[in-house]
């Protein structure tokens, strides 16, 4: 029986991908690295340090760990500053309604994000009250596709993985949900999320009615 939901943040609750893109692009231009939206899409759901390694590999560049940490911090400063432009109008379509209905129906709800800035994003959206537990990039050390962030959420909610549905927009996120024994909902295209138990093209279609109809047994 489904008792809880664990939500990814970026790409599910709100679309920060464009803000991440602008911040990485700023750094890449300064470093004379090639960086475009196709590479940006590969950073979906993965941690900041893993992201900079993907960009570096793409550019056949090598830097020591210390410089990488400094550059990742530089990108993060730009990103965090840009989060100040985010407002409670920036939920993805239908998500506020879904979170509201989950509250009304008494489901347990956790956040399971790779982002170390998740709390700031939730505060900008005025969304913290929708969550019983906030799991973010500071909560566990192994990031998606490892299941740790979702196991953390389930444990804090005092639920078993099979009692929870993970909602994700990243391939690595669905991999993580499956590795942990969770049910999964993918938000996005078949090519990326065909391995999710249930998939919607966009958040708009992900209503509690549709979700309950699918997971009814
Ligand atoms: P930060 P999610 C992920 O969040 C993003 O999808 C990913 O692009 C980003 O690199 C990662 O958070 C780390 O974010 O630099 O803010 O710690 O999708 O897991 O909510
Ligand atoms: Mg995401």
Please outline the helices and strands.
Layout: E1 4-7, H1 17-31, H2 37-42, H3 48-58, H4 65-83, H5 95-104, E2 108-112, H6 118-125, E3 133-135, H7 148-157, E4 164-168, H8 171-180, E5 183-187, H9 190-193, E6 198-200, H10 208-214
Parallel strand pairs: 1-2, 1-4, 2-3, 4-5, 5-6
The structure holds 1,6-di-O-phosphono-beta-D-glucopyranose and magnesium ion (MG).
Magnesium ion is lined by residues 8, 10-12, 44-45, 169-170, 173.
GO molecular function, one term: magnesium ion binding
EC number: 5.4.2.6
Family: Belongs to the HAD-like hydrolase superfamily. CbbY/CbbZ/Gph/YieH family.
Give me some keywords for this one:
binds magnesium ion, magnesium ion binding, binds 1,6-di-O-phosphono-beta-D-glucopyranose, Rossmann fold, DNA polymerase, domain 1, Beta-phosphoglucomutase, six-stranded parallel β-sheet, 6 strands, HAD-like_SPP, HAD-like_sf, sugar-phosphatase activity, alpha/beta, 46% helix, single chain
User: So, CATH architecture of the largest domain?
Assistant: 3-Layer(aba) Sandwich
Q: Return the structural class.
A: alpha/beta
Count of β-strands: 6
Q: Give the termini separation.
A: 7 Å
* Spatial strand order of the main sheet: 3-2-1-4-5-6
Query: What small-molecule ligands were found?
Result: 1,6-di-O-phosphono-beta-D-glucopyranose, magnesium ion
CATH superfamily of the largest domain: HAD superfamily/HAD-like
Radius of gyration: 17 Å
CATH class of the largest domain: Alpha Beta
Overall outline: globular
